[in-house]
Each structure stands twice: as C-alpha cells, then as structure tokens.
Fold this protein.
Amino acid sequence: MATLMAVGFPGSHFDSGDFGGALACLASSFNPATTRVVNSIFVGNSAGEGGAVAGFYHTVELYNSILWDNVATGEETAPINGQAKGDWTASYTCLEFLLETIPGEDPPEPGNYPGSLDADPHFVDILARDLNLETGSPCIDAGNNEAVPLWMITDFAGGLRFSDDPGTPDSGNGTAPVVDMGALEFQAQITATPHGAEIPAAHNLHAAPNPFGVRTVIDVIVPQLAAGQKSTIPTGLIIKIFDVRGRLVRDLPMAGSGQHSVAWDGRDHMDRQVPAGTYFLRLHGSPDEATAKVQVIR
C-alpha cells in the first residue's frame, strides 16, 4: 500500500480521453491495490473522468484532504466525477459535490463518508492558488488525528501540523489540537499568556532558551488523567523531537502529570550533535498531544 501525505496538487490537465487529472491509480482484478492520501489538496485539475483522482482496481483512500474546483471534461459525467472516479473512499475529507444526488441514482449516504463534507473550504485566494484556509473555514480543526502518522508534525509549508484555533469548535476526531483538512494547517495567532495565568491545554509546551546552541530546557504542563483514563502509549509520557523532514531525532521520557522540565542537549538518540535548524517537539501519550517548535544554532 502506497501513502501520499501533506501534498498539494494544483492545476494538472489531461486530455478528455484520460482520467485522474492529478492522481491516477491502476491495478488489476487479480492484484488489487490501495493508496492512502492524507492531508492533501487537489485544486484546479481536469481530465476526461476523475478530474482530481481516479482508481481502477486500485482504491484511493482519502483522509483529511480537500478536493475542490476540479473538472471532468468527458461527456455525460456527473459533477462528483470532476473530483473522483472509480474506486475511492473518503474520510474526514472536504469533497465538492460529495453529497449531490446523481440523476437516476439514490442520494449519497453521508455515513459512507465519515466526517466528510462538501462545503466551500474557503481558501485565502483560490484563483491565485493561495490554498491556506481563511478564518471560519469548515476545514479547520475538522480532520481525524488518528489518520495522521506520528512523525507528521509539519504541514506542506513547514508549519505545525497540529495547531488549534481557539475560535473554531472542534468538529473532527481526536483530542485538541485537532488536525485540519488539507495540506496547510491554519496557524492561529495565539496571544501570550500573562504571568501566573492558567496555560491553555493546547499550548502548554515550550523551550527556553530558544534559539539555543548547547542546551535548552523544555517546560510542559501535563494534564491530569481523568479517573480510569490511561496514557495512550504503554511506556508513559514522552517528548518526541523531530527534524523538518519528519524524522525522529530523540525521545525524552517523562512520568506522571503536573509540571515538568526536561533538558535537551541538542543531541540525537545516538548522542550525535544535531545540525543547526528547526526542530519540532511533540508531547506524546497525554490526553493533550501538544506541539512546539525549537531552533538550534551552531
């Protein structure tokens, strides 16, 4: 099974006899296949059928993605075929015409597309291909955290993959911060917390000094587990450190709830000094899997 993650597919065009303007997946009835597409965007593509994606004996599984303004140029094609054709599924995905009834057929059953919608995603400027989400987009905090691999902590532009928008009710699946649909996470502007004020659960992880050269101290407030609630990993709580390519650099274990400070010496799990650059921290195993960014200088 192949997997595509945090990818943008803007504006590919194929002749009307072709299919899958951005992604065409083929297999045979003797050897069917599957491709997972996670947190991707398909906009402005066209083909004879399946303006964005098409699968034949090869299922295209869409998760946390957006397919919008794609076109099927063939004759007698239903509007949904502009987005997807053939063997495909959608989960927590924004897909234009998803719930539009095709003449002569039964209405689409929303339960077949859990968490999905066909509402305008409200890009900043779709004509200019600025595919960031606007404030108020229905795709903000509307994805499924369980579909995102642990190591995917950055979006297509290098921003935090999990960034909560306090002004948007969570409509997706998972504990806040809930991932957005699409390749570009909405980066909410967070006001600094006054000294002594309660730190919001989704923003309780930071490092100082930052940037740093030799050593930084990571402060975290771990929420108290509710009665009967257990850590999501058997080894307890861990701060995982990733580089900008999503590779795991170091694990920093912790224990219990409350306020903790953990030092990082800028070295990886092999005790090698990491190169200068941006690294991402993620608290894993807590009800609040918070993320933060740290800069290493040399």
